[in-house]
Amino acid sequence: MCSGNMAAGVLSGVRQVLRGPRLLSAVFSCHGQTFSSAAAAVKSAPDTAVTEKILNFPLTQPDYFHLSELFTMKDLFEARVHLGHKKGCRHRLMEPYLFGSRLDTDIIDLEQTAELLQQALNFTAHVAYRGGIILFVSRRRQFGHLIETTARECGEYAHTRYWKGGLLTNAPIQYSPGVRLPDLIIFFSTLNNVFQQHVGIRDAAKMNIPTVGIVDSNCNPSLIAYPVPGNDDTPVAMEMYCRLFKMTINRAKDKRRQMELLKGISASV
Amino acid sequence: MAASGCRGVRSILWKYGSCAKNLYVSRSKMVPQLPLRQISVASSLWKKNLAAAGPQKFTQEFIDKQLEEFEVGKRHLANMMGEDPETFTQEDIDRSIAYLFPSGLFEKRARPVMKHPEEIFPKQTAIQWDAEGRPFHFLFYTGKQSYYSLLHDVYEKILAIERHQDKMRNKGLFASDTKQILLTGSRWLLKEEIEENLVENISDQDYLRLIQLMEKLLSMPYCSLEEEFILKFRKQLEVQSSKYQIPALQYDPQGVAFSVADGRRKTAKASITLRDSGSGNITINGRNYLHYFPVLQNREQLMFPLLFVGMMGRFDIEGSVEGSGHSAQAGALRLAISRALLSFVSEGEVEKMRQAGLLTADPRIRERKKPGQEGARKKFTWKKR
């Protein structure tokens, strides 16, 4: 399953909405009410061929943002991403992603991790390129501050605190009627403080919001759209993930600004 | 057959009736072309769930329109009253409305009112996202953005101080006896005050968590680096004794100092003149205190303020008292003597007197009798049967 196709499939609704707002309810039919979605971000621009090209051309390339140069498997190994939990903590659905176990400790297969991480970063980059809202979520108190700082530095949003029940599912009442929900949620650790699956994963699936998640060997990868098997307990590994996501998002946003400038220049010419 | 069926259904519905209303649109016999249509609507669907709607929200355009109407209406009102529309103030508006719409209602808020829309419509929080829908604050999706951002900042400062500590340790300049922040005479801000500052509601646990974080910040040796930040969350306690109004020290034609003060207890009112360079004589209502207060307890009450400050034989006291009973009169006189003494005594002594309770007026008064009871508290005899 090519990541480009997946991205195109998920975001094709965006292109349809550019043509006509009536299709919004058909495409996002699972939304009970009409929230303004990612499409609203680009509604102001007139429907010219140049805008179409800016939005659609990156989707035709497999690695438009050259994210493969951001990390290598050796970097992942040195950041101890391959270290999982003990055999007793292993989740059954994580078995395909494990390379094996050594002295009872599960070792995560870095070849699969590298590929899946590449796909996840690519998806994140495309979402950031199209001006989507990205929410970083984690309930690990050790890394909460780091994740909030990362979110602030790339101009996105973070939630590393107690997750109140209806944040996504009851949004117009929790916040205000016209609120826009996140377009991508990145889980730096899919478990909460009592070793149960984070409520946000289920809620995001209910609200049709794609998720990227770092799944350790004791996590359930089923509801996550882009699971990335990897260690979520070591500071080195978390710092590496934060750095990677920050660089991806900044790169994508810079690229978008560049394209807008070029469009401006070509329009004036 | 259809008719009987219909009647049967109608009779059943009549029995189980009030919850649903049924409308039968014409009968096939009378108007053959219209089909028999049954519309069943439960009245519970018509009721609006008022509780779930929350406080009423007004759009900005609605409020702008109200503002326009208010301005125009103000000018009309001025013309009606024959006054200048340019200099028509809010008091003039209130006066004119009270004149044109006289209301005998007791509840002031129920009377006709014409005020600026800002005062009538409740303030709503401004929209927290930009034109594209992206929120301004990076912690918007947590729900309590100001509170969590405050926690984030405090933790940031803790980390900064830890880094500074490590640097000093590396250089070998680490000293645990560094300058400490003075915290005496101040208290942490209350939950309500913090809510006011953050413009957000926080729970008790959130408040406790914040105070714990601040205490952690204070426990570090180099916390004086963030002194200014910490003092923003502390409120200086006022010195209580400075609140008392000390009666002015006046001088006799002979040069003798004296002060005058009043005191009250229950319904007794007392007034005291305290003269310096005396010999401890006490005159009340023209009589000697021994005659006026035969009971020892009352005389002790008079003596206590002077005994406390140690100026027993120094003053001559001249007092007048009226009302209530002997104990209350003694209490009123005691308060008056203490107040008069304030002008002869130093600052530290004033604080001591305050802590001894000499300067506090006793607020207890007679509790009223309630109907259905013998007295204020005593009930009628309880009979089991």
Automatic annotation (TrEMBL), chain A:
Pfam families: Ribosomal_S2
Any single GO CC term annotated in Swiss-Prot or TrEMBL for this entry: mitochondrial inner membrane
Any one Gene Ontology molecular-function term assigned to this protein's record: structural constituent of ribosome
Alphabetized CDD domains for the sequence: RPS2
Alphabetized InterPro entries for the sequence: Ribosomal_uS2 (IPR001865), Ribosomal_uS2_bac/mit/plastid (IPR005706), Ribosomal_uS2_CS (IPR018130), Ribosomal_uS2_flav_dom_sf (IPR023591)
Annotated SUPFAM superfamilies: Ribosomal protein S2 (SSF52313)
Subcellular location, record wording: Mitochondrion
PROSITE patterns, sorted: RIBOSOMAL_S2_1 (PS00962)
Gene Ontology biological process terms in this record: translation
Keyword Ribosomal protein: yes
Keywords: Mitochondrion, Ribonucleoprotein, Ribosomal protein
Family: Belongs to the universal ribosomal protein uS2 family.
Described function: Required for mitoribosome formation and stability, and mitochondrial translation.
Matching PANTHER family: 30S RIBOSOMAL PROTEIN S2 PROKARYOTIC AND ORGANELLAR, SMALL RIBOSOMAL SUBUNIT PROTEIN US2M
The name this protein goes by in its record: Small ribosomal subunit protein uS2m
Species annotation: Carassius auratus (Goldfish)
Automatic annotation (TrEMBL), chain B:
Region named Disordered: 356-385
Name of a matching Pfam family: Ribosomal_S9
Stored Gene3D superfamilies: 3.30.230.10
GO cellular component: mitochondrial inner membrane; mitochondrial small ribosomal subunit
GO biological process, one term: translation
Compartments (UniProt record): Mitochondrion
Keywords in alphabetical order: Mitochondrion, Ribonucleoprotein, Ribosomal protein, Transit peptide
Keyword Transit peptide: yes
Transmembrane helix in keyword set: no
GO MF terms, alphabetically ordered: RNA binding; structural constituent of ribosome
UniProt record similarity statement: Belongs to the universal ribosomal protein uS9 family.
NCBIfam families noted in UniProt: PRK00132.1
Descriptive protein name: Small ribosomal subunit protein uS9m
Organism: Carassius auratus
Name of the gene encoding the protein in the UniProt record: LOC113050758
